[in-house]
User: What shape does this take?
Amino acid sequence: MRKLPVLLTALFVSFQFAFAQQSPEEFLGYPLGTSFTRHHKVVEYFEHVAENSPLVKFQKYGETYEGRPLTYAVISTEENLQNLEEIRKNHLQNAGISTDSNASPAEKGIVWLSYNVHGNETSSTEAAMKTLYELITQKQEWLKDLVVIMDPAVNPDGRDRYVNWYKQVKSTPNNSEPMAVEHNEPWPGGRPNHYLFDLNRDWAWATQAETRQRLDIYNDWLPHIHVDFHEQGRNDPYYFAPAAEPLHEVITPFQREFQTEIGKNHAKYFDEQGWLYFTKERFDLLYPSYGDTYPTYLGAIGMTYEQAGHTGLAIQTDHGYELNLVDRIEHHHTTGLSTVEIAAQNVDRLNSEFAKFYNNPEKGAVNYVLTGHEDKLDLLKELLDRHEISYAMPQPGNIKGYDPLKKKNSRIKADENTLVVSTAQPKGKMVKVLFEPSAKLSDSLTYDITAWSLPYAYGLEAISTGSSVPTLTSKDEAEIINQASKTATAYITEWNSMKDARFLTALLKEGIRVRFTETALENSGKNFAPGSLIINRIDNNKVENLDELLVDLANKYERELTAAATGFSTSGPDLGSSQVKAINKPRIGLLRGEGTSSLNQGELWYFFEQDLNYPVTSIDTRYFGDIDLSKLDVIILPSGNYSDLFDEKGLDRLTSWVRGGGKVIAIGRAIKTFAGEEDFNLKFSDKEEADTISKPNLVPYAQREREEIKDLITGSIIETKMDKTHPMAFGYEDNYLSLKLSNDSYSLLSEGYNVGYLEDSPNIVAGFVGNNAKEKIKNSLTFGVEPMGEGSFIYLVDNPLFRAFWQNGKLLLVNSIFFVDNSEIKNYATK
Assistant: This one.
């Protein structure tokens, strides 16, 4: 009888909790699926749940570029939440990440659910609220041995861009006709973040603020299971694991098998409802920067779930039924709960297999030895630090290993600019994925690029060795401290990296006049390669405190200045030579809007604001025809289709401006605008099959997709010959490893400058290139300059800024802006 008061008390507490805890519908004031929820209301609901439930902790982990909070909820039992830090440490100890001697065996499973990485794939965030509520009100039993982490909106800026637009244009009641405006977003759409980056391609490269802040907490937890919720085309039903081939070879048999187990659990619930779905198609596990692959390479069961969508509240499909938001939410809600359920049933397996994944012993390890310019190594170390991957400095001496570029054994002489990254560390499998020269392809049909090796992306020499490499325990970083020299006639500094580029733009913004040498020279006992910057005192005689200002900037940007006591060079041009060119402060226009690739436009926008720190004026294609071109020196055309903008009249206007001294930089598909046009030397490659049209297509229907890949280049690394005497190539060597994203091919310029080009037998360093495409790109242009009157057209066939991770390409754009045809002395005072 004494137990009755206790029971009544428990029932009363339970009743109080249920009363205080509102469902999403009760809190928002409308049923889920009848309206889109703006991001701040989603945050408010999660806060409400956390305030009223002992099973939820909710906190901010960062902020977007537009100031919206990045948040996550941790859901578990009250007891688990009270011991959360202990659970986390035990989990990391199980993986060998932590070496806490006080840690206990890992006994809990960690599941991470990520929603709305693409802003216009909106159903997932709505489903997150529903899933949160059901977990804590009906599925508490699953939480006994689990910690569930939920990120309700990975991309708040993109989500609100879509939701705000939709609410502005939707019909009342909503219109389900696909032609209706509410189903056709304007440029750039809600998919990307503020800088128009696809955050689902940024996990490994960590270029964006959202990614960097998320990785801080992701690496604190390293979940056993990670799910990325998406939407696909309106006529596809629902996709869930197991994934399609190719799967990277580091993925373990357990990871493959458990994906299938989860998929079968989903299928059980979908079959009960008669919902359609598909598996093992389209979405592979190769490219390392997805929300499914990156966690997979860190030991998780990483999965993408794709719901038919990209629509408003309801839309007609081609299959004769209406797809609505209510159903989309329910499908994502079902797979989310199903994932948590299967995890709760397999906690011991998850922990034991996770420990095996992170067991990467010294025996059989691969050591990647990298050498190159200090700035490039520093940039790579920053990335490795973000991923909490260990690296070391080797002891001085020769290191033997295999050079994949030379395709033979070679050696590197280790010095202060050498780095060793080994797979003999807990995250060794991720090291292999990121550093291996070429990923093995079990299937050439892939969803994204097929090559990304970090040594190539960062412009570093690399060898691999199975032998252990003796390393130093630490290295003292030499601090650059410049000193002013009032007697110096000039200061000289080298040109090798984006750090030099940022120093240049800082000088220009301070009104300091800068020159660069087109030819190697020796002065003050030092050799300076072409591109080296020269700040002459006579050019800056009106700059107050020039020496102090210059030294402060050089120290800030860690650039070493050489004080030249004389303009007379020991060899090469003197500092007053015509081979030492002036660098003007160019006024740059960047096109955006309909016709342009939002991704490439975003890469450029981000580059100027976050990488180069130099002003750029974004100009929409809607009114480009009305602007005063005389107020610009450079116009950058992101990859895109400009056939309407540059019709006969528009092209005449542009070429007249170029002839008068303007400069156009065209990237990727934008180059097609000028190929074959009158007055242009640029021509399409003539290597197409001459009789393609006359031949009947006898390829069987079932083989068409396989046959078409013969013409494709799917993000491959190809060795490009460089004319390093041209200003566009300053800072580069004879060969540059270019990331080629398409089979677009242009003949070598018969007039102008072929700065980067492919020879008769292009060296495919990594990635897939179809046989027909390989033939097509022979003897073709990669980077070129076509002079026209007083100005020029610059062609970047391969995008040097791709996803902001191809670090070694960025200087090509900087050189194009500041070194190529930018030396005429101009007076901007009246402009």
Q: What stands out?
A: The chain is about 30% helix and 20% strand. The longest helix spans residues 253-273. The chain has a mean pLDDT of 92.
